[in-house]
Structure formats: C-alpha cells, structure tokens
Amino acid sequence: MGLFRLLFWIVLILAAVWFWRRLKRPSAPTEKIPDAAPMVRCAHCGVHLPRTEALESDSQWYCSRAHLEQGPRQGER
Q1: In a domain, 51, yes or no
Q2: CA 76, CA 55: separation in Å to the nearest integer?
Q3: pLDDT tens-digit series, residues 32-45
Q4: Where would you find the membrane-spanning parts of this chain (predicted)?
Q5: What is the structure's pLDDT at 46?
Q6: Which has the closest alpha carbon to 56: 74, 48, 64?
Q7: From CA 50, how far away is CA 37, in angstroms rounded?
Q8: Would residue 49 count as lying in a domain?
Q9: Cβ contact 76:43 at 8 Å
Q10: Fewer CB atoms inside 10 A, N or C side of the chain?
C-alpha cells in the first residue's frame, strides 16, 4: 500500500508541474492569414480570378487576352 501511495504522489506532482509549465509557457504566435484578393468574373467564360490578374475593358473583366478580344459571351453584357 505504501508503494502505491508513493507512486500516486509522484504522478500527481509531475502532472501539476506539467500543467503549471503549460500555463506559464507563452502561446505560439498565430500566423496572420493574408487578406484574400478581390475576385472578379470573366465576362466571356465566367471563371473567377483575382482582380490583380484580370484584364479590364469597358467595366468588364476578362481572364485572358483572347477572351478580352472576343468580348462578353453572347446574351450577356
């Protein structure tokens, strides 16, 4: 019975020390997630892409030079 009591106290003290260190340890710095770039929709094919990569003409956005030259899809403006 004495050995069990000794092991119990050792485990209890180790758990308390572990818990205390965990509380005192500074939390890991959280990585800041970069803000998402504004997205636009290609007027020809409908693909969404970042505005920084899109081409603009007449308030319309396009995903490529070919789609810019073809213009908006028929039925859309």
Answers
A1: yes
A2: 18
A3: 777 788 999 999 99
A4: 6-23
A5: 93
A6: 64
A7: 6
A8: yes
A9: yes
A10: N
Q: Which pLDDT belongs to residue 39?
A: 94
Report the Cα 56 to chain-centroid distance in Å.
28
* 7-22 residues labelled b (16+ CB within 10 A) or e (exposed): eeeeeeeeeeeeeeee
* Count of C-beta atoms within a 10 Å radius of residue 54: 22
Q: What's the rounded mean pLDDT across residues 54-61?
A: 92
23 part of a folded domain = no
CA distance 61 to 22: 52
Compute the average pLDDT of residues 49-62: 92
Q: Answer whether residue 2 shows pLDDT above 90.
A: no
Map residue 4 onto helix, strand or coil. Answer: helix
Domain count, the chain: 1
